[in-house]
Specification:
alpha+beta, 3-stranded mixed beta sheet
Length: 77
């Protein structure tokens, strides 16, 4: 569920939604989501002083906590 949540939020923010990919790496108690976006859209996902990235991580954390897990979002170039 977290993967779809991140994809939906990020695709709403960027200019090239077709180039948004989220890779999910499952751990025992945590999940790592690796976010790939177009080079031009990296700034839009991170935002000024990282505010948008922090907001996405907060939403992701709340969703994962509901399931009793921990989720980490990594924004890759």
């Amino acid at each position: 569920m977290e993967k779809e949540l991140v994809e939906f939020v990020v695709k709403s923010l960027v200019d090239n939604p077709d180039e948004v990919f989220v890779n999910k790496v499952e751990g025992e108690k945590s999940t790592i989501l690796e976010l790939h976006v177009a080079q031009d859209d990296v700034g839009k996902v991170i935002g000024k002083q990282g505010r948008i990235a922090k907001a996405i991580r907060t939403i992701l954390s709340a969703s994962a906590t509901k399931d009793g897990k921990r989720a980490v979002l990594e924004i890759l170039d």
